[in-house]
Amino acid sequence: MPQPDHISKLGQPDQSELDEDLRQIFAKCVEKLGFVPNVLAAYSLRPQRLRNFMTTYNEIMLSPSGLSKLEREMVAVVVSSANRCYYCLVAHGAAVRQLSGDPELGEMLALNYRVAQLDPRERLMLDFAWKLTTTPHLVDDSDRDALSQQGLSQEDIFDLAETVAFFNLSNRMASATDMIPNREYHQQMRVAPPLSDH
Amino acid sequence: MPQPDHISKLGQPDQSELDEDLRQIFAKCVEKLGFVPNVLAAYSLRPQRLRNFMTTYNEIMLSPSGLSKLEREMVAVVVSSANRCYYCLVAHGAAVRQLSGDPELGEMLALNYRVAQLDPRERLMLDFAWKLTTTPHLVDDSDRDALSQQGLSQEDIFDLAETVAFFNLSNRMASATDMIPNREYHQQMRVAPPLSDH
Amino acid sequence: MPQPDHISKLGQPDQSELDEDLRQIFAKCVEKLGFVPNVLAAYSLRPQRLRNFMTTYNEIMLSPSGLSKLEREMVAVVVSSANRCYYCLVAHGAAVRQLSGDPELGEMLALNYRVAQLDPRERLMLDFAWKLTTTPHLVDDSDRDALSQQGLSQEDIFDLAETVAFFNLSNRMASATDMIPNREYHQQMRVAPPLSDH
Amino acid sequence: MPQPDHISKLGQPDQSELDEDLRQIFAKCVEKLGFVPNVLAAYSLRPQRLRNFMTTYNEIMLSPSGLSKLEREMVAVVVSSANRCYYCLVAHGAAVRQLSGDPELGEMLALNYRVAQLDPRERLMLDFAWKLTTTPHLVDDSDRDALSQQGLSQEDIFDLAETVAFFNLSNRMASATDMIPNREYHQQMRVAPPLSDH
Amino acid sequence: MPQPDHISKLGQPDQSELDEDLRQIFAKCVEKLGFVPNVLAAYSLRPQRLRNFMTTYNEIMLSPSGLSKLEREMVAVVVSSANRCYYCLVAHGAAVRQLSGDPELGEMLALNYRVAQLDPRERLMLDFAWKLTTTPHLVDDSDRDALSQQGLSQEDIFDLAETVAFFNLSNRMASATDMIPNREYHQQMRVAPPLSDH
Amino acid sequence: MPQPDHISKLGQPDQSELDEDLRQIFAKCVEKLGFVPNVLAAYSLRPQRLRNFMTTYNEIMLSPSGLSKLEREMVAVVVSSANRCYYCLVAHGAAVRQLSGDPELGEMLALNYRVAQLDPRERLMLDFAWKLTTTPHLVDDSDRDALSQQGLSQEDIFDLAETVAFFNLSNRMASATDMIPNREYHQQMRVAPPLSDH
Questions:
Q1: Do C105 and B3 touch (CB under 8 A)?
Q2: C-alpha distances in angstroms, E173 versus B159, E49, E130, E183, F6?
Q3: Which end of chain A is more exposed for a tag (fewer CB within 10 A), N or C?
Q4: What's the pTM?
């Protein structure tokens, strides 16, 4: 069965036509990852919006925070699972496999995070992610209090909330454009490394 | 009944402690609007994230686009209605009243947009906003094709999708922090101006 | 944007053609409120049903009861919010603003009552109203017991239930006929009176 | 297994303590039906509300209308099925069996009306009843137009809508009070009469 | 109103054309029940699948188990209620009436099991049946633990789960084929036997 | 993060204690697959039920039918996606990758089948699987007719329906027991074979 060969159903400019700053970023992606993530190519239809998206993404996912990078990726996957977003589940499922060194964990979070054996802090954050995604109008003090009791500071709760909120944005951009993930993600870290690598 | 007197349940720094650039922006808000929108105060708990939020907001809501500013505000209100987000319904409901000069239109969009008499392009955009918000996994080619047939370019569809996606982000930030809108919004443009003002 | 100019999509007789008793009631409305509420005009398509509707309405909303008139209006708004009923949200949102002297309270109840700061009795009644509206088959002894423990008598619980039930009726009449509220409601009590008026 | 022996969980006065007019009505019920329907006993906790309920009920279910009495009972059952209301399904399921002379029809409507073989007018009315019950905010011109095309006048659509609306009220009164139907209903018309009786 | 006269919308072979073993089973049904249950006739379109279905059914519903036959039938009805399956509600509602000797119990379970007065073990099993049917992905240790605490062994929980699971299969076969139950079920045990029969 | 090391939360007997016929089957699994699928080990808590499960499974998934084995596996995955069943998504996702030689197709079907490029027959069968799983009470003649028009015989529709129905059974057994899939599935066919292998 031939699978989709588009990046975004809205199309995108040829990369050679992009502004110099964007071409440099894309070159850096190829250097580091081996490819330009399709979300960036899809967003290049609107270059200034692409710049803002990358700035926001980098701050939320990579800047210093009380949440580890793995925790943020776990949140990304659970939000995308609630929204059944193919692009983000593939791309961030791979990230969870890589950061955790656990090829099954990404699958569990993508398919039904409740089957994973998580410590209480992680489980609470993922329950919050699911609730804020599916019934945001029901979030209340009891949810914030439970996170505080697990040791999250007000800034940590803010960062958690913004991670959830951001993937509710990006899931919808992926669905609205029928964005297809790069094939490379599918094969990443499917086998757990030997224990000495941990 | 005493109503909430917090801005965000996560708290926020005193404005005098903010970086110079943020203080200047807040001063400008007071100058132009008479107040600092509470969403900005709430976001100032995490200053760099506030900067990114404002940059993204301004691009999506105010930059040149095939969608008018009123159309973008209408989308904001319908997304917020689907998510039952109090903050965004109050703030952007006021914006719809102001930009349209029609005090009832904001109410209709906030409460059930299907009762408003809209031209087919507007109605289609709002139906798309509702669907992309509530069942993003069901959006498909037929939705994009219908928008194209109403004259939206690929860039217009991108901008529409990002407006929907962005309010799915900001609705969740408001719900996660129990953000309360500035009281000023409630009174804005409750009476239609005389016709000569249109 | 021109907004709807109909009262009900099913039409209604000219008021001059109504029976004498109904014309007198309508005249009294104009005298007291300045207008005939559109729900009465819409119902006049079926005069005997209009009479019954008014009798039931007056008993439920205005007769002596353990629930205050403001509490009954608050319930009306929360039921109408669950059902996304434009007519009732506009008309009874105005009533909440008037009876409470609090222009924001009506907005909160219409958009997401969980953001309002309510005393436990009120909050419990509104939670009950939401549940009885959206999942009536799940109401059970624990719900009735909780209301009793807040001091409601059996008669009070009956009156609360009938208020919820009645707006589930009237919301559906409004939706079925696309009933449009009188414009006057939109402007009522948008600014809180000076404190001495309370 | 002992089954419930209450009429309403809120209790009700002894019938001998009721006002004369209500006692006469109850006596007439016993004369005609063999029993006082429990909904009336349950409502007698609030006598004036009982009077209004009976007046409204009689007008909607028994007065001259473009809808036959069987059609109104069919609507009652389908609304009650959507709301999973035990009391109304038992009482009005029996009424459908009696009025139609078809012991299976009441079962079909109570359990899943889509399996019944209905003429297009009936099916359309029942689809409308389901939609107005479960998603009233989505009812629009296309629904009203479809009913008109099946020959319903504006008054007929009004009567249909009010029947749906009324059972959304009474279903909630039954659920709120855990009203238990009289046992007599269960046995009524379980076997189809010989053809000559039709 | 003429009611459906088909057994399955997919049709089925004439019973005289079936293999000998199946004809013998059908003859035994007539002998014991007075008729061949339509589910067997419908399944005979695919004879080997019919054999497997009967084997599975007999093991789950009739073999020795920590769950009584009545309990298994009660589970069957509640699952079918959640799925609004007409065939199974009629056939297994009759079985509940027969096995319990209580003509109302089957009605309660079919229409809204929460109104029945059940002992805690039964209520817990039916709550589990509802949850495993409607939100299987949310079942977790707390559900299994609650069943254990009511005295169910691991094997009992397995049998309960498989009963729920099996009716989720058979409900869907009935819906997919529009299977119509034999008329005989409707009249079975509509009147409670005199007490001495219990 | 340590992942689950149980097979079923209800436990299972040591394989050496099983009856001879089951031990032989398990030995054959090891010979052919390299392992005993955990669903069989979990079911061995109730040996006769295990036998019936295997018989039914083999008939539905492996016997001659108008549906290809790949089509049946695709249906299995889409049903399991609707029910968010971790076990079946992992095990049958691997089967789709193997039978199709397309490592991405299994992912697409597990996460959101609507993004896959399917021929109309396949898409229709998967849409039917989703509908029969999530809203069985809404399946009607129009669904069956659409399948007929795509060339499915009555027997093919039966087989499709039973495949859907069977995974609604097995998904619930997996959820009820918290069944964990064998780790081997995760690594199977993650890279597409060179074209000459097809």
A1: yes
A2: 45, 12, 19, 19, 33
A3: C
A4: 0.97
pLDDT at F198 (0 to 100): 43
* pLDDT tens series, chain F, 198 aa: 677 889 999 999 999 999 999 999 999 999 999 999 999 999 999 999 999 999 999 999 999 999 999 999 999 999 999 999 999 999 999 999 999 999 899 999 999 999 999 999 999 999 999 999 999 999 999 999 999 999 999 999 999 999 999 999 999 999 999 999 999 999 888 887 776 544
pLDDT higher than 70, residue D1: no
Q: What is the pLDDT of residue F195?
A: 61
Tokens of E12: 């089925």
Q: How far is CA B138 from the centre of its chain?
A: 24
Three-class secondary structure of residue D193 per DSSP: coil
Q: Shortest CA distance to A22 belongs to which of A54, A68, A60, A67?
A: A54
Of C133, C139, C172, nearest to D164 by CB-CB distance is C172
Across the interface, which of E10, E157, E161 has its CB nearest the CB of F158?
A: E10
Tell me phi and psi for residue E177, to 5 degrees.
-105, 0
Q: Tokens in use for E7?
A: 């057994």
Closest CA to C167 of C64, C96, C66: C96
Q: What is the pLDDT of residue F3?
A: 76
Q: C-alpha D8: how far from its chain's center?
A: 18
Burial string for B5-25 (b: 16+ CB within 10 Å, else e) reads eebbbbebeeeeebeeebeeb
Counting as contact any 3 or more CB pairs under 8 A, the partners of E are A, C, D, F
- Judged by CB atoms within 8 Å, which residues 25-54 of A form the interface with B? 45-46, 48-49, 52-53
Q: What residues have CB less than 8 Å from B127, skipping those under 6 apart?
A: none
- Contact between B74 and B116 under an 8 Å Cβ cutoff? The reply is no
Residue B192's φ and ψ, nearest 5 degrees, are -65, 140
Query: Which residues does chain E have with pLDDT short of 70?
Result: 1, 195-198
Q: Which two tokens stand for residue D5?
A: 């022996």
* Residue carrying structure tokens 């340590």: F2
Show the tokens assigned to F94: 């691997």
Rounded to a whole number of angstroms, the distance from the CA of D158 to the nearest CA of chain C is 7
In C83-132, at which residue ranges do the beta strands (DSSP E only) sit? none
Integer Cα distance of F171 and B87 in angstroms: 41
Q: Measured in whole angstroms, how far is the alpha carbon of residue B9 from the centre of its chain?
A: 21
For residue F125, which phi and psi values (nearest 5 degrees)?
Answer: -65, -40
In terms of Cβ atoms closer than 10 Å to its own Cβ (0-12, 13-18, 19+), residue F180 is buried
Residue recorded with tokens 């095939």: B66
CB E162 within 8 A of CB F173: yes
Min CA distance, F155 vs chain D (Å)? 22
CA C72, CA C68: separation in Å to the nearest integer?
6
Cβ pair D177, C156 in contact under 8 A: no
d(CA A187, CA E180): 49
Report the chain C residue with the minimal C-alpha distance to residue D87: C137
- Does any CB of chain E come closer than 8 Å to the CB of residue A84? no
Length of chain F: 198
Q: Which chains touch A (3 or more CB pairs under 8 A)?
A: B, C, E, F
CA distance D176 to chain E (A): 12
Distance CA E5, CA B124 (A): 44
Alpha-carbon distances, residue B30 vs B21, B27, B35, B37, E70 (angstroms): 15, 5, 4, 9, 72
CA angle (C154 as vertex; C148, C156 as ends), nearest 5 = 85
Inter-chain touch D111–E3, beta carbons under 8 Å:
no
What is chain D's mean pLDDT, rounded?
A: 95
Against chain C, the chains showing at least 3 CB pairs within 8 Å are A, B, D, E
